[in-house]
Specification:
heterodimer, A: 402 residues, 2 domains, seven-stranded mixed sheet, 14 strands, globular, B: ABC transporter involved in vitamin B12 uptake, BtuC, two-stranded antiparallel sheet, 2 strands
Chain lengths: 402, 298
């Protein structure tokens, strides 16, 4: 019996040693993101962009002599599921940091957990301005733009235009309202003559926009801010094309010029739609951007979308931060991330120290046909640098103090 | 009073027509649901998934045939038939063994099919958004009192009545339809007189699935075809069926009309809260006629 117990104790000790050895070997990144349902059209790009970079980093021997590994968990777009998955990643998988999610609700829930557990959490795609705004803290970072930033960037460009009578229309959920408010409130600040003549809100997932479009046309506004997200982007543009809406009244949609919106429509997307985007594979036409787009296309046989850029940034920021920190330590990682600047496909990017928000440029443009591609692209692109539209550090401080 | 003046503006006519064209798709899908519910007593939650499969099949067919009018017509025939074939398999393999079970069991089974079909669609077509382009002759829009009405919506206005007449003929003028109606009232009596009820049920189920597929194929050019398009529709379809009277196909027609028109006129009157009107209509109908507008077969 004693012998048996001894063997058992030995085996247990061995198992512990083995798992400890494994944990010390690799830097472990835990993804919590939506990998089922419509959101996968965006989230798969993040993962693919990340994998591509991690592969290269690991091939060169990794960081601090360690490889970077990752595990993924599906949050099913639900905060409770996301939270459970994040807990499991921290407690059982012993991840060094958490990343992910396109759902703002999941991101805010996991962010809370990250604060309690003192684990760094990098948000990849969720667009609520609360993440690095009023709900921000030491352990949370954002690797993409948010609705407030998109609104400021769009307002800056729209204010230069002569339109005054604005109509607001959009998906009746958090993202739709927050993007519409962000655009319109900043537009009003920049151009006090602007007025809102009316609003229409439809349910998220609406398939037929024709009744809304005819009603808006009957009201005769100068310009329409269309606050749609996800599949609503394409649905609205299709309705605009078939009713000739874009030819009767100009309109703006955040991400209207993005590949995820334009590619599914081929040559039939409406022309002349104003939009903003974080990433365009053909603009800026720099060597770095072209190299990134070509590499991504070679690996996955498709052009990179915004998500691919977020994944790319994520991998390189993580690797460089650990390099700078000199060891795999959660607090040191955060210190290293703060204020770090990195050369990226869209130019040098800074992770702001005051709010942990990346200062990506925003591209403002208008949809047009291109002889080169089988889908519409953005024309007259203006690059709005991050510093021109990010809320100031003082604003963030005030929002967090509330 | 300002909002009432909108009701008598130039937009009213085009808004009504748009509402009616929306009614067409709602009617086609919900009549299929109603048939299955009324005759087979199956609360088929997977009906929306079949509609989604119809849309994806239409996409595939149009791309295989390379676009244009022939491809579009082929899609309108092949996609619903494909969904009907899938329905036939489901009926023979699963439902035909379970007709005597409780509704809860059937509900759970159909719910499991929504998950399974959703994942199958993901495996076959992937997660990217899909989109089909209308043939050139159906693109663009007509002008009604200065407001656009897409040609495709006009086309839907023609399709709606055709389907309604077709269903009326099938239900009232064919032997199959008569037996199905009888079986809905008294299943045991029909089999007691020597009729093979099983095949009548299979036929009804397949017809219902065909309608779901047709609805999906018809909506395909108007929307982007994506996972999740089944969820929003199935709720509307059930509301329509309940509002119209469970199992009554003409109730589904009436319900779709109420739903489509209150929505489009609601948007005209109060665009900010346009979405509440159809649901408000459902509430009003159910308060005053809890068993639906027309007599239920249940």
């Amino acid at each position: 019996m004693k012998k048996f117990l001894g063997v058992l104790a030995g085996a247990v000790a061995l198992m512990f040693a083995a798992s400890a050895g494994f944990a010390a070997d690799a830097i472990k990144v835990g993804f919590v993101d939506t990998y089922t349902g419509p959101a996968t059209a965006y989230t798969n790009d993040v993962l693919d962009g990340f994998k591509l970079e991690i592969g290269k980093i690991n091939a060169k021997g990794g960081v601090l002599g360690r490889k970077i590994e990752f595990v993924t968990r599906d949050d099913k777009y639900k905060p409770d599921v996301g939270l459970t998955m994040a807990k499991e990643l921290i407690l059982r998988e012993n991840v060094d940091l958490l990343v992910g999610t396109i759902s703002s609700a999941v991101a805010l829930a996991v962010s809370d957990l990250a604060k309690k557990e003192k684990v760094p959490f990098i948000v990849t795609y969720a667009k609520s301005d609360k993440i690095t705004g009023e709900k921000g803290h030491r352990y949370v970072f954002s690797m993409n733009e948010n609705s407030e930033m998109a609104g400021r960037a769009a307002a800056k460009e729209l204010a230069k235009k002569p339109y005054t009578k604005y109509w607001i229309a959009g998906d009746d959920y958090e993202y739709g309202h927050s993007i519409a408010n962000a655009v319109f409130s900043h537009l009003k600040e920049l151009n006090p003559k602007v007025q809102k003549v009316g609003e229409s809100w439809w349910k998220e997932g609406e398939t037929d926009f024709t009744p809304y479009i005819t009603q808006i046309l009957a009201a005769k506004p100068d310009f329409v801010i269309v606050a749609t997200g996800g599949r609503g982007m394409v649905n609205f543009q299709k309705a605009a094309q078939s009713t000739g809406f874009n030819k009767r009244v100009p309109f703006y949609q955040h991400t209207a010029i993005e590949l995820s919106t334009l590619m599914p429509q081929g040559q039939n997307a409406p022309e002349g739609v104003y939009g903003t985007a974080n990433y365009l594979f053909y603009f800026p036409a720099t060597k770095e951007n072209q190299a990134f787009a070509e590499e991504f296309k070679k690996a996955y046989n498709r052009q990179p979308k915004s998500g691919a850029l977020y994944g790319h940034l994520l991998a390189n920021f993580i690797a460089k931060a650990y390099q700078k920190a000199g060891k795999v330590d959660k607090e040191k990682f955060i210190d290293a991330m703060e204020g770090m600047t990195l050369d990226t496909p869209v130019g040098p990017m800074e992770m702001r120290a005051c709010d942990h928000q990346i200062a990506l440029p925003m591209f403002f443009g208008v949809t047009k046909k291109s002889p080169q591609y089988e889908h519409l692209v953005a024309g007259d692109v203006i690059s709005v640098p991050g510093k021109d539209y990010l809320p100031s550090c003082d604003d963030v401080k005030k929002a967090r103090a509330k | 009073m300002e909002f009432l003046s909108h009701l008598f503006s130039s937009g009213t006519l085009s808004q009504l027509l748009v509402g009616l064209s929306r009614t067409t798709i709602l009617f086609i899908v919900s009549s299929g649901l109603s048939l299955i519910l009324g005759i087979l007593r199956i609360p088929n939650v997977a009906h929306g998934s079949l509609y989604m499969v119809g849309a994806f099949l239409a996409y595939t067919v149009i791309h295989l045939f390379g676009g244009g009018v022939p491809a579009f017509v082929a899609a309108l025939v092949i996609a619903p038939l494909g969904v009907a074939a899938l329905g036939f398999v489901l009926e023979r393999a699963f439902f035909s063994y379970l007709y005597e079970r409780e509704h809860l069991m059937l509900l759970l089974l159909t719910f499991s099919f929504t998950l399974i079909i959703g994942d199958l669609v993901k495996i076959v077509w992937g997660t990217e958004y899909r989109s089909v382009t209308l043939p050139g002759s159906l693109q663009g829009s007509a002008e009604i009192l200065g407001l656009p009405l897409p040609y495709y919506n006009l086309f839907l206005l023609l399709v709606g009545p055709v389907i309604a007449v077709f269903l009326w003929l099938v239900i009232n003028r064919t032997r199959m339809g008569k037996i199905a109606r009888a079986a809905a009232v008294d299943r045991e009596m029909v089999s007691a007189v020597g009729i093979n009820v099983g095949w009548v049920f299979a036929f009804t189920f397949v017809l219902g699935c065909f309608l779901a597929g047709l609805g999906g194929a018809l909506i395909a050019p108007m929307t982007n075809i994506s996972l999740g398009m089944d969820h929003s529709l199935i709720i509307e379809a059930f509301l329509i069926v309940i509002m119209g009277g469970l199992g009554n196909v003409w109730g589904a027609l009436l319900g779709s009309l109420v739903f489509g028109i209150t929505q489009s006129l609601g948007i005209l009157v109060w665009p900010k809260f346009g979405i509440v009107f159809p649901y408000l209509a459902v509430v009003v109908v159910l308060v005053f006629r809890p068993r639906g507008l027309l007599s239920s077969t249940w």
